[in-house]
Amino acid sequence: MKKKTRNRRKGFHIFLLLIVFIIFSVNLAGYALRQIFPTKYSQYVEKYSDEYGLNKNLVYSIIKAESGFNPNAISPRKAKGLMQIMDSTGEWAAEKIKIKDFDSSMLLKPETNIRIGCWYISKLINQYDQNIDLALSAYNAGSGNVAKWLKDTDISSDGITLDRIPFKETENYVKKIKRYNYIYKKLYGEQK
């Protein structure tokens, strides 16, 4: 009888240790994922995603994909900052949203970059009737390319959506943003 009770206690202790290990592992995994998928610059992301009607997770996903949250990132094509804004896009956007005395070096300032990036992706989402794939394709490859693709019946059977994205880089970009957006949603919940 004593042996049975000892075995039950031992089994119960092993069970408790297993539960503690599982809880610890889940918390550690969550912590690690939050380090890989951070919400840096949240004061600017929240402010400008709210102002331009964007989902915060989408903005974080774009920043992660574009610059890995490096505010000083400059691409080989000279796109700058967190959301990788080209000088010409920055100048155009700054004029539209009335940023006074804009200079392209301001694209390396997190607030200015996120403000312009949020305005621009919001404009693209509206331009493409809330079609996120088209907006992301235009963000990456340019609106001119998307316009050409929509007119090409081999690429767009209906002229409204893309059946395929002809640039592999852009196709991978759209997939990456959608994957990141899914992960952000799982980690931080649905955010408007």
Task: Give an overview in words.
- The model has no long low-confidence stretch (mean pLDDT 90).
- The protein is mainly α and 192 residues long.
- It has two domains: 1-36; 39-188, Lysozyme.
- The chain has helices at 2-36, 42-51, 56-67, 87-96, 110-127, 132-141, 143-151, 168-188.
How many whole angstroms does the radius of gyration measure?
23 Å
Order of helices and strands: HHHHHHHH
- CATH class category name of the largest domain: Mainly Alpha
Report the CATH architecture of the largest domain: Orthogonal Bundle
Write down the CATH topology of the largest domain: Lysozyme
Number of helical runs?
A: 8
Helix content: 55-70%
Summed over residues and divided by their number, the pLDDT gives a mean of: 90
Overall morphology: globular
Q: Please count the beta strands (DSSP E, at least 2 residues each).
A: 0
Low-confidence stretches: none
Q: Separation of termini?
A: 60 Å
Structural class: mainly alpha
Q: Could you describe the largest sheet, including whether it forms a barrel?
A: none
How many domains, as an integer? 2
Portion of residues in beta strands equals: under 5%
Structural features:
192 residues, mainly alpha, Lysozyme, 0% strand, globular, Lytic transglycosylase domain-containing protein
